[in-house]
Each structure stands twice: as structure tokens, then as C-alpha cells.
Amino acid sequence: MVNHHLQDAAGRTFLHWAAELGYINVVGSLLDMFELYPHAVTWDGETPADLARRRGHQNVLHRIQNHRPPQVQGSPEELYNQLLSRITQGDDYVQGCHLLCSGAPLESPSGSSTQPLPLAITSNRREMVSLLLVAGAPLTTTCNGFNLLTLAWFSPDVTPPVQVIITR
User: Fold this and answer.
1) pTM exceeds 0.90
2) Pick the CATH number of 76-167 from 1.25.40.20, 3.10.580.10, 3.40.50.1110, 1.20.58.100
């Protein structure tokens, strides 16, 4: 059971570490084979491209900047609804990544009360929760008066892996 967008204490993912260390083959594999989200942000808002740039790894930076995941067509509202639909259907982070890279917003463009991160938590979607967190989903979101941590720990169908991700 691998969590592809697992974050360490600083919010770095596998892709962040590979980019900072200049491991271009690993970066390529993470982007092409595992289809990780290329714009993942740390707690300080740094992307893998930012870390590669700071360390002078121009080949890695170029590889990340030229990565083109499959695009999904649609308006922001349509992409948002597709993201919600993907979350309800399963834990397919790859399709979630494609939607986010295509411009799916993390918050409802129309003001809908259904938000992706609380939906992923209550649906027990470990990979989608991690993806939404690295994509910068708002942590101040509430659902039925509960903050995300309370939602994770008091929703009956949420398993410990999702609870731990939210607690970190």
C-alpha cells in the first residue's frame, strides 16, 4: 500500500526530493509512470520545480516544466463536478491529477457546499486526500460544522490511514 503523494514533515513528496537531489530519471519515472502531480506544494508553498531551480538542476527543471499530462476538456465548473464524481467513484488519483492539471478548481466556482477534500475524507479516499492536500486544498474547510481533523476522526467509515494523513 503506497501513498503516491505522501508528504513528510516539511510537506515534501517523493517528487520534491527527487527534484531537489537532481535525480532526473526518478523525476521522469514519477511523472510518466506513476503520473504524480507535478505542481505539488510543500507547507511553505514550494513546488518540485522550485526546489530543482534553487539547486541548479536545470535538466530536472526543464523535465518538470515540459511534462504534459493528459488534458480533460471542460469549463472550471465541469472539471470541478468531474473531480467530485471521481472522488465518489473511487480512489483514482491519476484521473484526479489529470483533472487538476486541466484546471479543476479545489473550491466550487459556483459556491456549492460540497468540497473535494471533505468529500474525499468522508469517502475514505486515501490517495485522493493526499493528492488534494499536495495540490493546496484549503485546510480551513468545514463540513457540517466540523473541521477536517474532526471530520476524519469522527466519520464512521474513515480508516486510520486517512485519519493519519489529515492529522499530519
Assistant:
1) yes
2) 1.25.40.20
